[in-house]
Amino acid sequence: MSDRIRARVFVSGRVQGVYYRANTRDAARTRNVDGWVRNLDDGRVEAVFEGDEDAVEAMIEWCHTGSPAATVDDVDVTYEEPQDESGFGIRR
Questions:
Q1: For the Acylphosphatase-like domain, which residue ranges apply (predicted)?
Q2: What domains sit in the chain, N to C, each tagged with a CATH number?
Q3: Is the pLDDT of residue 1 over 80?
Q4: Neighbouring residues of 56: CB distance < 8 A, sequence distance ≥ 6
Q5: Quick check: is 23 catalytic?
Q6: Is 32 a catalytic site residue?
Q7: Could you count the other beta carbons within 10 Å of the beta carbon of residue 18?
Q8: Looking at 21, 25, 31, 44, which residue is catalytic?
């Protein structure tokens, strides 16, 4: 599992109220990426992606477009040590 990575992503723009979290969950599950996604009080969306490097990088790239109704202005990524996330869910 040495190729397992973890990325924390903050997405800004019109990303709340446009099914961004649900679409992120579906995209992550399709790519077998573990982690979670949630809305922040400041209007951004925060997500944690953990898994195979190629799959995590694909999720980060996906975040630049996101759900069809979203308008993404910025994606800020920080890499962290994996924490053995299991499954992918939406946090409230």
A1: 6-92
A2: 4-82 (3.30.70.100)
A3: no
A4: 5, 6, 7, 33, 49, 50
A5: no
A6: no
A7: 17
A8: 21
